[in-house]
Amino acid sequence: MSSVTIDKAAPTRTVKYGSMSRDRKWALRWSYFFLTLFAIFSLLPPIYMLVTSLKSSAEISAATNPWWVFHPTLENYIGLLTSNQFLRFFWNSALVSIFVVTITMLISVPAAFALARMRFWGSATLATGVFLTYLIPDSLLFIPLFKVFALFGDWTGIQLINRWYVLLFIYPTLTVPFCTWIMIGYFASIPKELDEAAIIDGASWFQTLTRIFIPVALPGLIAATIFAFTVSWAQFLYPLVFTTSTDQLVLPVGIITTLIKGDVFNWGQIMTGALLGAAPPLIIYAFLMDYYIAGLTAGATKG
Amino acid sequence: MADVALQPDRVGAAQPARKRSSLQKALKRKSTAAFLMTLPLIILIALLVLYPAFYSLHLATLNKSMQRFVGLGNFEFLFKRDTFWLVVKQSCIFAITAVFFKALIGFIVAHFVHNIPAKGQRKWRGMLLVPWVIPPAMSTLAWLWLFDPSYSAFNYTLSFFGIGPIPWTGDAAWARFSVILVNVWYGAPFFMIMYLASLKSVPDQLYEAAAIDGANWWQRIWYVTLPMMRNIIAITTLFSLIVTFANFDIVRILTAGGPLDHTHIFATWAFRIGIEGSDIPLGASVSLFMVPILAVAAIFILRDVNKRGNEA
User: Fold this and answer.
1) Are A105 and A228 in contact (CB under 8 A)?
2) CB-based contact B38 A48, cutoff 8 Å
3) Strand pairing partners for A264?
4) Contact state of A270 with B37 under an 8 Å Cβ cutoff
5) Do B189 and A42 touch (CB under 8 A)?
6) Which of A104, A105, B258, B266 could make an SS bond with A175 (beta carbons 3.0 to 4.6 A apart)?
7) A6-34: per-residue pLDDT in tens?
8) Are A207 and A197 in contact, with CB atoms under 8 Å apart?
9) What is the Cα–Cα distance from A219 to A231, expressed in whole angstroms?
10) A-contacting residues in B 89-128 (Cβ below 8 Å)
């Protein structure tokens, strides 16, 4: 904060503390210079996606300047948005993400409430266990999980592999531990006086949760929801392993397996698909950036 | 405190119906209610995380058709293969280099963002976090296209400086560089956000005191910023080490392990063997090699989290 005040006062102080303010001015210029460089580095791939998505295949294969569109066209967008297959991927992704977010919230909010406020035998161990589960990566579990679901299909006759809804069982293993963990942090930061007052007024535990904890911890709840949504939207390994038929695929896997036909890369359509696939998280991020960042930092700073 | 306050309510509710069965009484108890609320979580973790994790230990001891117990045969087989050692080496190179550069770039960029006036910070932070927001599978496709052997936009730009076409994904050394570059691009914003949050919590008085004592910028970073951020640096690095070590999508899409298995890391090689080659036990054995390093990182993170929990 002090840097800001010094900066605002800089013009009047120029005479008195010449060298210091000149240093600051240069530091500021260098900061902007390097930030611009890093911003270009960060935004290069998405911008290049946009540039390529506006080109026709003829322009892509012609050896013109790849960074510029000479004959912008929407044919890639029209092609994809009228293709039933692509819309199916989008629909599958949306369905999976919405269900996973709902399931995650239904499991993790009550659990976080119980772990943060109601002490019971083993609750501290369980909270630590939840955190450890969050550290187990998907690439460790995909092989045994695949086998477990295959065996489950053999035993019960219910075939889950190669159905999009198998992902509804698997994605919560990624989202629930983290969401529970950050909700424990948010719930624990609510002052005890609040729920004591509610209980004195005769509220049950359930009412305390829905009337006090959820409204007060709403920012945390939004952050957790955004996290669950982005994770399930972006997940690539599990759908690649568990689904193969084209009508069961979600967006990331669908784009990679269907738009790349052998060695033929239809780059215009691939980039359009990738951009459309990146759009939902980007839109959420654009509108709810603060919640997004709160969720990101809460994982490691709340404990 | 909550326990004591709760009693009148519970007693009032329980007294009229003395004859209720003990089961109903147990349901009314706080600990039972709490246990029921966490039950879905416990079931989920037990069935879909713990059970598969231990099941993969069992899987790793079976032969390819999963009918015969071979003990440590799969591991013996792996140790004799050159590709396995290539994967071990590449996994370590990949994870350590990528995490180091992510941390370094994140630290530098966080300082630059912290330096500029507060009202512009939001805008810059918003732009710099974009790589983290785009699903990695989608952004890696853009990188794949930027690295395309014949239409690479990078090579087009570099050709103006007289730098010949670079085989971004065709040559082993360049392919290793490319997967690390994409991973750094994707992960550095996370470090930037974490470090920025932690920079803002360093009290300004410390810098003022250091400035009065005549500390230059390097001394301010070394003696004030770094000690204050030590905790968050450690925890972020360990988190990222786990995630990078277990990375799958970037390597899978960018090189699929090629050229000649030189960019395979544990996750992609396990996928290649276990799912594509349908040798599930061998694939499970490969992915089990991730456990030791993950366990070490997890222990350190847990120690840190518990320590901070006690301080609070």
Assistant:
1) yes
2) no
3) A261
4) no
5) yes
6) A104
7) 444 444 444 444 556 677 788 788 888 88
8) no
9) 18
10) 105, 108-109, 112-113, 115-118, 122, 124-128
Going by the DSSP 8-state scheme, the letter that residue B166 receives in this structure is P
Q: Residue A188: which H helix or E strand, with range?
A: helix A172-188
CB A238 within 8 A of CB A165: no
A277 vs B contacts (CB less than 8 Å): 135, 137-138
The dihedral through the CA atoms of A88, A92, A98, A99 has a sign that is positive
- Report how far apart, in Å, the C-alpha atoms of B169 and of each of A20, A38, B260 are: 48, 23, 11
| Residue B41 neighbours by CB distance under 10 Å | 24
Q: CA A241 to CA B276: how far, in whole Å?
A: 9
In angstroms, the CA B296 to CA B285 distance is 19
B41–A176 C-beta distance less than 8 A: yes
Q: What is the pLDDT of residues B83-132, one digit of tens each?
A: 888 888 888 899 999 999 999 999 989 888 888 888 888 888 888 889 98
Contact A149, A160 (CB under 8 A): yes
Per DSSP, the three-state class of B126 is: helix
B129 touching chain A per CB within 8 A: yes
Within 8 A of A169 by CB-CB distance, chain B residues are 48
Contact (CB<8Å) B48/A144: no
| Interface confidence: ipTM more than 0.90 | no
Q: Do B271 and A123 touch (CB under 8 A)?
A: no
Position B288, amino acid = L
Q: How is residue B84 written in tokens?
A: 């396995």
b vs e for A126-155, b when ≥16 Cβ sit within 10 Å of the residue's Cβ? Answer: bbebbbbbbbbbbbbbbbbbbbbbeebeee
Q: With contact defined as beta carbons under 8 Å apart, do B13 and B28 qualify? A: yes
Q: Would you say B256 and B82 are in contact if contact means Cβ atoms under 8 Å apart?
A: no
What is the rounded distance in angstroms from the CA atom of residue A106 to the CA atom of residue A102? 6
pTM of the model: 0.83
Pick from B30, B53, B156: which is nearest to A141 by CB?
A: B53
Nearest to B103 by CA among B233, B293, B196: B233
Which residue in this structure is represented by tokens 């580095």? Answer: A41
Distance, first Cα to last Cα, chain B: 19
Which among B131, B239, B302 has the least Cβ separation from residue A42? B131
Distance of CA A276 to the CA centre of its chain: 15
Residues of A in contact with B115 (CB under 8 A): 3, 27-28, 31
φ and ψ of A265, to 5 deg = -105, 115
Point out the residue among A107, A131, A140 whose CB comes nearest to the CB of B44. A107
